[in-house]
Amino acid sequence: MSNITNPASMEQFLNRLADPVVAAELFDQFDNMTFFVKDDAGRYLVVNQTLVSRCGCRDKTSLIGRTAAEVHPQPLGNYFLSQDLELIRTGRPLLNEMEQHPYPRRKTGWCMTTKLPLKDKAGVTIGLVGISRDLQSADQDREVFTSVSKVVEFAKANLSTPLKTPDLAEMVHFSVWQIDQRMRELFGLTTAQLILQLRMDAAAKKLRNSREPIIAIALDIGYANQSAFSRQFRKTFGMPPGDYRRAKIAEGNLGTRDR
User: Fold this and answer.
1) CB burial of residue 227 (10 Å; 0-12, 13-18, 19+)
2) How far apart are CA 191 and CA 188, in angstroms?
3) Would you state the pLDDT for residue 256?
4) Who has greater pLDDT, 102 or 72?
5) What per-residue confidence (pLDDT) applies to 5?
6) Can you give the pLDDT at residue 110?
7) Coil, helix or strand for 96?
8) In angstroms, rounded to a whole number, what is the distance separating the alpha carbons of residues 185 and 135?
9) Is 255 a residue whose pLDDT tops 50?
10) What per-residue confidence (pLDDT) applies to 236?
11) Which domains does the chain have, with CATH numbers?
12) Which residues pair with 207 in a beta bridge?
């Protein structure tokens, strides 16, 4: 009978493994998802076979020690590397980012990418682990994904303005039902829910990275007053924005550029 009953025992178990990184072999079984571990310079340490194939390489050793900028076509390669280095610098995860990736048999395809920081015992970010899951198969309409991406990018760039689903749908020549259906398929959210999430994410980032007044943050992300913003922020994060900022200061996570 196993005696792995607590985190200490689990650590002992992992230390006994000949290869502590077992996930790559698991992700080798998925041809619609890439998996990778990178060091603090953005260099590949572990990859799955799908990523090897997407990069047009012969084997995994062809990728190890190289950055995304060295194995992906430009400008995508430089974009991925800058994304990696920003995550390593800040220690903040990248969650469900819709983006284009290169494929061997067509120019690009749409993926949903998540990257998480890997930290040492002192809490310093020393690398990252990530996956990119295909959203688009060869027989799907590329224009649909381009349209959804256009809506998402427009919303991110215009959070301070009213963002109504009918207006966003009209922008890409969709009906409200069509745009909501696409959003649910990709993000598990309606268009309105996604916009709310984008606003809350932007607010949390501003609270962490600046000493900007809360009322200014509220206005920046589209709220008419601080009260409405604070109610929604508390509903989302479980605490008022001021408490959230103080908690991040206590953790040492407030942006250094504003200290």
Assistant:
1) exposed
2) 10
3) 39
4) 72
5) 52
6) 74
7) strand
8) 9
9) no
10) 86
11) 15-134 (3.30.450.20), 142-254 (1.10.10.60)
12) none
Instruction: Look at the pTM and tell me if it is higher than 0.70.
Output: no
Sequence-separated contacts (24+) of 159-162 with Cβ below 8 Å: 159/195, 159/198, 159/199, 159/202, 159/220, 159/221, 159/222, 160/219, 160/220, 160/221, 160/222, 161/222, 162/222
Residue 173's identity, in one-letter code, is H
Q: What six digits make up the tokens of 197?
A: 């999430």
CA pair distance 90, 96, nearest whole angstrom: 18
* Helices within the chain (DSSP H only): 7-16, 23-27, 49-54, 68-71, 76-90, 142-157, 165-171, 176-187, 191-209, 214-220, 226-237, 241-251
Structural tokens at position 189: 């959210």
Three-state SS for 1-29 is: CCCCCCHHHHHHHHHHCCCCCCHHHHHCC
Q: What is the mean pLDDT of the chain?
A: 83
Peptide bond before 241: cis, by omega within 30 degrees of 0? no
Cα 233 from Cα 203, distance rounded (Å): 8
Q: What angle do the packed helices 176-187 and 191-209 form, to 10 degrees? A: 60
Least confident of 47-56, 71-80, 249-258: 249-258
Contact between residue 63 and residue 71 where contact means Cβ atoms under 8 Å apart: yes
Q: Provide Rg for the chain, Cα atoms.
A: 21
Contacts of 157 (CB under 8 A, 6+ apart): none
